[in-house]
């Protein structure tokens, strides 16, 4: 009996150790990954700043065209660096989701768990060995005399078999809901990544356009003899800036649309959570009428809505409002162009 008990303790200890080891490695991986992304962001940002700050040296030793290449390279590298940092911050809410203290806590937890199991083994091995053996023999004799195989089988068949079948059916139903919730969580994670990426691209593109416009306006002291030369100088540059802003607006529009999708899936997840709670409560009560009502409500769930005449939803009204605003902006631009 002692050997079996020690084997059980050893098995439990190994299971806990493997679990703690997995958690520790996961924490280390997340910590290293976040630090690596932050390092990439800082490295690209520093390289970009070096290129931008040394443009005058490039102009002095080479020519103006080579200096312009330095500016473009520096701005692009700086944008990549800031993009890395912003993306990691938006994903985790901080620059390092798992800190060194988290890893230390995992290591301490694993060591304490190992010590706890070793202490249990030592307690069982030492102390009142003779008394333990006598008590063990008495218990074994009582079990052999009273609890036979037929007795155990009859008790299991009468009490546990129906309950086990019922619990298995209940678990299957709840597992289906859990799988649905897990799938929605995965979709939410994907949407958040996509939204953050669109926000970073749109923000950086807008900043680049603003910097380019400011550089063109305040850094170039040019004199033009006539209006034609003035327009030929500024129109191409302003056209590029407008194009870049439209590009940024596209990504910011995608970010806004993704936020609406995230809100929709969050509402769906909330509905599923409430249904899981209601179903668990109905199964725990064991009232057939309540369970029937719950099943009828679940059957009524319809995802492909069919709206009747003069019916609408919040999302449709938002789309109509956005379309109306875009038409107004297009009309204003057309009027300005005609003038």
Automatic annotation (TrEMBL):
Record keywords: Membrane, Transmembrane, Transmembrane helix
TM stretches of this protein: 37-54, 66-87, 197-215, 235-255
Domain of life: Bacteria
Name of the featured protein: Uncharacterized protein
